[in-house]
Amino acid sequence: MNAARRRAALVASGTVLLAALAPPLPAAELDPAAGKILAPEAFKWRDPTDQAATNQTILLGDPNKEGSLYININKFKAGRLGNAHYHPNDRFITVIAGAAWRGTGPVVDPNHATRVPKGTFMIDHAEKVHWDGTKEETGAYLITGIGPATNIDPQGQRPLCGRRPVGRDHQATQPDRVEGE
User: Fold this and answer.
1) What's the whole-model pTM score?
2) Could you read off the pLDDT of 19-32 as tens digits, one per residue?
3) How many CB atoms are located within 10 Å of the residue 46 CB?
4) Domains annotated on the chain, with CATH
5) Are 162 and 180 in contact (CB under 8 A)?
6) Which of 18, 114, 127, 154 is 20 to 30 Å apart from 89, CA to CA?
């Protein structure tokens, strides 16, 4: 090895050694004016005990306010299918955990639901009747839209204040109070 290559190898080895032995630099503080980070442990869930069949955290905006951009996460326990409904505005949804089961039209029929696995993107088009929920596994959706995020009953043309979940035997149980899902 010639002298120039030996020197380069020695410098490179020394640099790697110094980098390995150097104390770690403290993490830089983020400028809150430049961006915001909200860790999962800081999410404010409607039911902090996470015992409800449906739970929700609002990450941004107000889903009840006309014209407000909102982003929320809705979590569903297993065996929970909701009533047929529609929304006044488009909603953009990504399944972030488990799987969703979805159908269209005014009749909730679990035997004709389509499985929508984690990672899938969906759009609920404005004023189009659909229903969704979970079967054997839990699920969570990241939902973005423009308020209001009202669920409207296609039969009575009135806002629903939650849905009547359907259990594993597909019999209606008590409604969950989840607006904007």
Assistant:
1) 0.72
2) 556 666 667 788 88
3) 18
4) 40-160 (2.60.120.10)
5) no
6) 114
